[in-house]
Amino acid sequence: MFRLPSAMTPNDIGIDLGTSNTRLHVRGQGIVLCEPSVVALDRSRHSVIAVGQEAKAMLGRTPANIEVVRPLRDGVIADFDVAQTMLRELIARVQPRRRVLRPRIAVGVTSSITPVEKRAVREAAMHAGARAVYLVENPMAAAIGAGLPIQEPGGHLIVDIGGGTTEVAVISLSGIVYCGSVRTAGDEMDEVITQYIRKQYNVLVGERRVEEIKLALGAARESSDGPRTIQVKGSDLVSRVPKTIMIDEDELREILHDCVHTIVEAVRVCVERTPPEIAADMIDNGITLTGGGALLAGLDEILRKEMKLPVTLVHHPLSCVARGIGALFHDAALLERVALDH
Q: First CA to last CA across the chain, in angstroms?
């Protein structure tokens, strides 16, 4: 049987273009790359020094001529040129060096994306080497990645908590019945923690350390084993010397209370605005939690208690959107249906 050489075979790429991390799914291979959405630039030489994990490691540790940039904010491209550079570099890492046939690329985007932002994502992907670009709303991709039967009649409520936004959507018959988006997500939680430590302890903590605190202690409910503590190192704002403080999970839970409340209210609004026939389906189907923020301990229990609905935290919630986008390349009809005006 005749086979095309590897350089001529389709190598479709699904991209979860996240505010915090970008994941690439290659058709037939699965998720092959996950890197922080960070780029390090040498402003004096107008050149790129590093992309991804290597760039993130430089946060707060660079000389004056080097700037570490996050090209996405609140789920959308904030710096087009840097985002294009990042995409080109990440795509090159998963593409064979000699490739004749350029890949089709599907990109997950926030449901609140504007026409201008859509054009920016399309152009960034095209300049990065795509022959065709599809944009798919994150809640839809997350639902597919979670294995929900989205093509059947019946409402499925999905809550995708990413780095820049939390998106709450009701999906039925391969379409989004209602979708709401709030900018309370991972980045907002990090900022709240940073400001609290600064105000309460007069200590300035770096961005990378704040994220570590959230992952280590983040808890939406009280722990039955007593509060855990973590050592936090930063810079004293008064004396300007290094300082170490201790924070426990009870304290962090209070810090994040308003963020959790905002997410719960976004879910409540979504349920209230859903047609009664579909709302009735939720009694059986419940709420599906995806995204990195879904790992906040106890969040599922709070949603279950407040909404009086069953809540399911999917396996590997961080990669749900990327898996869903990748799966679409195996169903051309579904891809055409769910892609935004391409």
A: 35
d(CA 327, CA 93): 21
- Encode pLDDT of 267-326 as tens digits: 999 999 999 988 888 889 999 999 999 988 889 999 999 999 999 999 999 999 999 999
The domains located in the chain, with CATH, are 6-140+321-338 (3.30.420.40), 148-184+258-315 (3.30.420.40), 186-257 (3.90.640.10)
The structure tokens listed for 253 are: 């839970």
What is the pTM assigned to this prediction?
0.89
Q: Contact 22/37 with Cβ under 8 angstroms?
A: yes
Q: What percent of the chain has pLDDT over 90?
A: 65
Alpha helices in the chain (DSSP H): 53-56, 80-94, 115-127, 138-145, 186-201, 207-217, 249-255, 257-272, 276-285, 299-307, 320-328, 332-338
pLDDT digits (tens, 9 = 90+) for 79-94: 988 998 999 899 989 8
Are 104 and 136 contacting, i.e. CB atoms less than 8 angstroms apart?
no
What pLDDT band is residue 226 in, cutting at 50, 70 and 90? low
The interaxial angle of helices 207-217 and 186-201, nearest 10 deg, is 100
Look at the block and give the residue holding tokens 């709303």.
137
**Distances, alpha carbon 138 to alpha carbons 119, 141, 148, in Å:** 17, 5, 14
Please state, in angstroms and rounded to a whole number, the distance separating the CA atoms of residues 70 and 15: 17
CA atoms within 13 A on the CB side of 95: 25
Q: Rounded to whole angstroms, how far apart are CA atoms 17 and 109?
A: 7
Residue 237 has phi, psi (to 5 degrees) of -70, -20
Q: Tokens standing for 32?
A: 């092959």
